[in-house]
UniProtKB/TrEMBL annotation:
SUPFAM superfamilies assigned to the protein according to its UniProt record, in alphabetical order: alpha/beta-Hydrolases
Species this chain originates from: Arthrobacter sulfonylureivorans
Pfam families assigned to the protein according to its UniProt record, in alphabetical order: Abhydrolase_6
Key words of the record: Hydrolase
GO molecular function annotations of the record: hydrolase activity
Record protein name field: Alpha/beta hydrolase
AB hydrolase-1 domain location: 3-222
InterPro entries cross-referenced by the UniProt entry: AB_hydrolase_1, AB_hydrolase_fold, Sec-Metab_Biosynth_Hydrolase
Length: 240
């Protein structure tokens, strides 16, 4: 199967390097993306918004030509959901890694401190303890050394959706810094950040206890969790 991997903020395609081996060993074709403005620290970021990242991912889907599985980490979840909305007939499953589908009018995070056209990786003090679980000093240093400022527009632009067939695309939510039980509590409470999620007809929850960056703290386990969702999807596709 063709699997497109969309990184979260401050990261490029290489951030998936320790996650992909189980997928490739199982014979799947893996396409990690580097999105516009994330090519390097010196790349231009002015004028790049959420729609540009959705369109770049959409281009990758269209170039593959067949059915695709999308994986999005953190802010990448909003991006893959925008693609699901544009190509609901092409996406076999959307896998959200410590993230979820962003609904109409929502923004990924407009509270992150921006510097001009970009949002640099903030000081660790801005994150909660649950974000940083298992991210030891060495991993933090390695993350900061590789971090690329995020285009401000991607963080602050509202999501726009138009095709309700997006709710027919199966989803897997890999929870890390929160549990499926916590997520269910938010759903039961009608929390605004899960309004889009409750409308998806086929959702599974998988818990991988660690912090917000499992591609660094538990990459092998994340790869296996993604592989399990892909294998389930492949089985359902063959059965149909």
């Amino acid at each position: 199967m063709d699997i497109i991997l969309v990184p979260g903020f401050w990261l490029d395609a290489s951030s998936w390097s320790e996650v992909t081996p189980p997928l490739e060993a199982a014979g799947h074709r893996v396409y990690p993306l580097t999105l516009p403005g994330l090519e390097s620290v010196d790349a231009p970021r002015a004028g790049i918004g959420l729609r540009d990242h959705i369109d770049a991912t959409l281009k990758a889907v269209d170039e593959l030509g067949g059915p695709v599985i999308l994986v999005g980490h953190s802010g990448g979840g909003a991006i893959i959901h925008g693609v699901v909305d544009q190509r609901p007939d092409r996406i076999l499953r959307a896998i959200y890694v410590d993230s979820g589908p962003l609904g109409e009018g929502g923004v990924i995070n407009d509270e992150l401190p921006a510097d001009g056209d970009e949002v640099p990786l903030p000081d660790w003090s801005l994150f909660g303890e649950e974000d940083l679980t298992d991210l030891d000093d060495g991993l933090r240093a390695a993350f900061r050394a590789r971090a690329i400022p995020q285009p401000r527009g991607v963080a602050q632009d509202p999501q726009h959706l138009s095709d309700e067939r997006r709710f027919n695309v199966p989803a897997t939510i890999i929870t890390c810094e929160f549990t499926p039980e916590q997520l269910q509590g938010w759903i039961d409470a009608g929390a605004p950040q899960v309004v889009e999620l409750v409308n998806i007809k086929d959702v599974e929850y998988v818990h991988l206890p660690t912090g917000h960056w499992p591609q660094f703290t538990k990459p092998a386990e994340l790869g296996e969790a993604i592989l399990a969702a892909v294998t389930k999807t492949a089985g359902a596709t063959q059965a149909s």
